[in-house]
Design goal:
The complex is a heterodimer of chains A (449) and B (313). Chain A is 64% helix and 7% strand. Chain A has 449 residues and is an alpha/beta fold. Chain B is globular. The two termini of chain B are 36 Å apart. In chain B, a hairpin with a 2-residue loop joins β1 and β2 (16-27). Classes of the chains: A alpha/beta (449), B alpha/beta (313).
Chain lengths: 449, 313
């Protein structure tokens, strides 16, 4: 035990002090945080170029149907034909030209936009939305319904679906599918990534010891299996530390970044509301009728949902599945490392190890949409895929017996695989001069002592 | 009393017999030479003693009882294929390896301090192994092999990589350890060090123990019935008178004294040889030619291979 600890300690200290480790550990959170913050940041940034767009309305029915916005100016042109203007857009200083032509159908026109550059999605959707609304209103009007405006105001509805998870004890918890999916995705992807990343490092470590010829010095004082256990436990602790730092730093950075953005965003929102109210006031609509108590707001339910995740179970489950799953794969990687002298020779040997991992990743992607499907269920039981797939299911809630079954299967497999991996490792570390195959390793497994 | 005994050790690797019924007895407090050509099975035997691998048949006794897992703390092993973690600092690495051998951190520190001073390498403590020369690294390696003061030390080619000064330093250190009562198994291809250091030898060839014994007995037994006669006088006079009875195999001048090498048919004829020479010349020296370990090695191995129809590779 003391020896395993000594090996673990050495592995841990030498790896943690490496520059590459420090850089990777400290820089990755910036990347993750940026991925979280950037979309919101981009959303707050509007296109502030003022674009003027010419409209030639050949039907004569759509005057002022497309309202101006702060950045989109529309001018109706009557004195120039479409064919002439569309060829001189740049000279006349227009961003685009919208042509409205009548069709055989009475109300719906044919719309064409001409521009030198691909028009932005904002421009297109603004035009489409406003004209759609206008045409809808006109069609409605053509039915000659009484009090149409009032009816229209009346039927205006906004739906906000609150999702509440009910536990057996009747406890109700506000949940969010989006958040649950996000957590599931992060957990299982971390598992997958760390195994691949660290698997390589384990092989490299084993090969280094072989090539250094330090291996025989060490195994004259410690049993190979203990050396291997010390190594894989050492790597597992390095990974857990790295993940811990990543999570803490990422959330720290993301919180700072997001609060910075929302501060800016809120100001903008307030202004928008003001102008909207002003506009409505001008149009003589009673602003008081707009309901302000749609509760709870989306932002609030986001946070409640986040708070309501069973973090004890998720974190506990993650640590368990990560640790045992990591050790299971690490033992296999160590065995492969022992059979070669060069990291480039590992490719073929590693394939059978990475295959179940990649399979698990595919199941994980489908599992995130339907975490209770039979496919996902079985892959969360099979030991080689369960570390990834069970982590996908965990945030959605997993029945206790399934968790217990999957966990025990994983532990049993870990023990069996480690024993066999250690047998390969024990022989492999003393073999030089050749690249070995799985068939030869199979023979080593059956050697006595 | 024997510190270590190996009885009828057999070890087979897929289809290849690495050790075939090999037995050795290593008396306590002696230096035991383990000799043999490359690939004979020496390293396998050493690995079995170190419990790196187990024998298929036979048993190893340590201090008279079966070898146990904990005995690794009483054995120090300097493998032929040796090295250290290149990126690790000397001090840290020495501490790590000492602790692996069962020393507590404090004990390891104390002893390392003593050895670093003894070898005058205190300034290396914070250097990385890759910054040291090969010889320097070997010194560190030697140190961590003996740091836990084991009862049995196994050295496999301990002098490779050392310059003559450091070779002498390590040789003295080995003799010092022997004086303290440590038993040493010593595997090397350098036969002159075997003559210098070893009390007993075993010669392993093609997986078998083909020669064992006290080194002096072995050398005497392989005496080739040749006597060297230093003389003052005329060579031709001796030659013409010995011609019929004895075979003169060599005549040269060594240290200003002409010397004859004469072969007799058995060692008991030495008096007869002397009597036949005395009338013809003045004899200044007379002694048996004891074969060197080098000659014995080559002779025994090639004879064994010849009689068993094996190649010398």
């Amino acid at each position: 035990m003391k020896q395993i600890y000594l090996i673990l300690q050495r592995e841990f200290m030498t790896r943690v002090r490496k520059k590459s480790f420090i850089i990777l550990t400290l820089l990755t959170p910036f990347f993750f945080a940026a991925m979280m913050v950037l979309p919101s940041y981009l959303a707050t940034m509007e296109d502030t170029d003022v674009k003027s767009i010419a409209i030639i309305d050949n039907t004569g029915n759509f005057a002022d149907a497309v309202p101006q916005t702060e950045y989109l100016k529309f001018s109706y042109i009557t004195d120039t034909p479409v064919d002439k203007l569309k060829n001189s857009l740049e000279e006349s200083g227009y961003y685009a030209l919208l042509a409205i032509d009548s069709t055989s159908e009475k109300i719906t026109p044919r719309l064409t936009i001409y521009s030198t550059k691909q028009p932005s999605i904002d421009v297109i959707s603004h035009i489409e939305n406003s004209l759609e609304k206008e045409i809808e209103t006109r069609k409605l009007k053509s039915y000659n319904i009484e009090n149409l405006d009032k009816i229209l105001d009346d039927v205006k509805t906004e739906v906000n679906l609150r999702s509440i998870k009910v536990t057996k004890d009747g406890e109700e918890k506000e949940s969010s599918t989006l958040i649950t999916m996000g957590i599931a995705y992060i957990l299982s992807f971390l598992m997958y990534m760390m195994v691949l990343l660290m698997g390589n490092q384990i092989m490299q470590g084993v090969i280094e010891e072989k090539n250094n010829r330090v291996i025989e010095v060490i195994i004259s004082s410690i049993k190979p299996i203990n050396l291997m256990l010390g190594k894989i436990f050492g790597l597992a602790s390095v990974s857990l530390l790295q993940i811990f730092i990543w999570v803490v730093l990422t959330f720290g950075l993301a919180t700072v970044g997001l609060s910075f953005i929302t501060e800016k965003g809120q100001k903008a929102n307030i202004e928008q509301v003001k102008t909207a109210q002003d506009m409505m006031g001008q149009q003589g609509i009673d602003t008081a009728t707009i309901p302000t108590d749609i509760e709870p707001s989306e932002g609030e339910s986001f946070i409640t949902a986040l708070k309501n995740q069973n973090f004890v179970l998720i974190i506990g489950g993650f640590i368990f599945y990560f640790l045992v799953g990591f050790l299971l794969y690490a033992a296999l990687y160590a065995a492969v490392g022992s059979a070669v002298e060069n990291i480039t020779d590992t490719q073929q040997l590693v394939l059978p190890i990475t295959l179940p991992l990649i399979l698990a990743l595919f199941v994980m992607i489908s599992g995130i949409k339907s975490p209770d499907s039979p496919l996902v269920f079985w892959f969360s039981m099979i030991p080689f895929t369960s570390p990834v797939v069970m982590l996908t299911r965990l945030p959605f809630g997993v029945p206790g017996w399934q968790l217990a079954l999957s966990a025990s299967l994983l532990v049993i497999t870990f023990i069996i695989v480690t024993i066999f991996a250690a047998k390969i490792y024990r022989v492999g570390i003393l073999m030089y001069g050749k690249k070995y195959t799985w068939a030869e390793m199979w023979k080593w497994m059956r050697y006595k002592n | 009393m024997n510190l270590l005994e190996a009885h009828g050790i057999e070890k087979r690797y897929s289809g290849h017999l690495a050790l075939d019924d090999v037995s050795i007895m290593v008396p306590k407090g002696t230096i035991y030479g383990l000799l043999g050509p490359n690939g004979a099975g020496k390293t396998t035997l050493i690995r079995i003693i170190n419990q790196i691998t187990g024998p298929d048949k036979g048993e190893v006794l340590f201090n008279g009882r079966k070898l146990e897992a904990n005995d690794i703390y009483k054995i120090g092993y300097l493998p032929e294929e040796r090295g250290l973690y290149k990126k690790m600092k000397v001090g840290e690495q020495a501490l790590f390896l000492s602790q692996l051998k069962g020393l507590s951190r404090n004990d390891a520190m104390k002893r390392l301090k003593y050895w670093f001073e003894k070898f005058e390498i205190q300034s290396w403590w914070d250097k990385k192994i890759e910054e040291l020369s090969k010889g320097m690294a070997q010194k560190v390696q030697f140190m961590v092999t003996v740091i836990h003061e084991p009862e049995l030390l196994i050295f496999d080619e301990p002098f490779s990589g050392f310059d003559p000064i450091n070779t002498q330093l390590v040789k003295d250190e080995i003799l010092e350890l022997k004086k303290k009562g440590t038993t040493i198994i010593f595997s090397t291809h350098n036969m002159s060090t075997v003559e210098d250091l070893c009390d007993h030898i075993t010669l392993i060839n093609k997986s078998k123990n083909i020669l064992s014994g006290q080194i002096d007995n072995v050398r005497m037994n392989y005496g080739s019935n040749i006597f060297e006669v230093g003389y003052r006088g005329n060579y031709d006079a001796i030659a013409s008178n010995l011609g019929g009875m004895f075979e003169i195999i060599n005549n040269n001048i060594e240290n200003a004294v002409p010397k004859l090498q004469v072969k007799v048919s058995n060692p008991a004829e030495s008096n007869k040889l002397l009597q036949s020479i005395l009338p013809h010349t003045e004899v200044v020296s007379f002694n048996p030619v004891v074969p060197s370990m080098h000659d014995i090695f080559i002779k025994v191995v090639s004879e064994y291979n010849k009689t068993h129809g094996l190649s010398n590779n």
